[in-house]
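Attaching the record inline, Q. Sequence:
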Amino acid sequence: MFRGHGDTVDQLCWHPKSPDQLVTASGDKTVRIWDTRLNKSAAIINTKGENINICWSPDGSTIAVGNKVDLVTFIDARTHRSKVEEQFKSEVNEISWNNEGDLFFLTSGQGSIHILSYPELKMQHVLNAHPAACICIKFDPTGKYFATGSADALVSLWDSTELVCVRTFARLDWPVRALSFSFDGKMLASASEDTFIDISEVDTGEKITEILNESSFTCAWHPKRHLLAYACDDKLDRDRDSGVVKVYGFPSDP
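Structure, as predicted:
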């Protein structure tokens, strides 16, 4: 368990190349990089606003973090300094690079997915994905699929080449806040205000298991093992809002 943020942890992401590092975005206006070997923060990066989304570039060189006023900041992961900032006019709910790192995806409050070139950040395509706000997006490690979660409580699985929906998952009752694929692309975790995190088989859509939990707005699979990290409120700290990160291990972990 990792402690240190002064407000809720809204999103976390494992380093794509180093299995001992993960990064968290918090409403306390900081980004923290964690060393899982030491169970403590390895770096604290101050930001301009209350952070709500974060992702790592596929090569691990850049961290992108978005805040509540739709400002996305690109941070050099080595120097921990800002490289560029982009202010968006529409609501940005979650951000992600594609697996190749040459496209940057944003989910919007209008239910659409905006696809930009990277690093130019020029609009390439707008995909109408959901009838309600499109909240989150994650790419399958194999590059075959990406998944989106919406305020309509549905998870949609998309063919990343054809940009068509191939399957939906409908076991949650509340807006889908977080998605994550396992390192082998076989499992998809979906989190919301429901009291469990749903774990599904990607190829069939069948339920594998669920992790009973207070509501969680972020989760992330380990890049090499069947370990799922997720953030939730610290119920032991009754004096203030604070966030903790927990890790769930699956028996099938190699």
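Residues 69 and 119 are 21 Å apart (CA to CA). The chain is about 0% helix and 55% strand.

More tomorrow.
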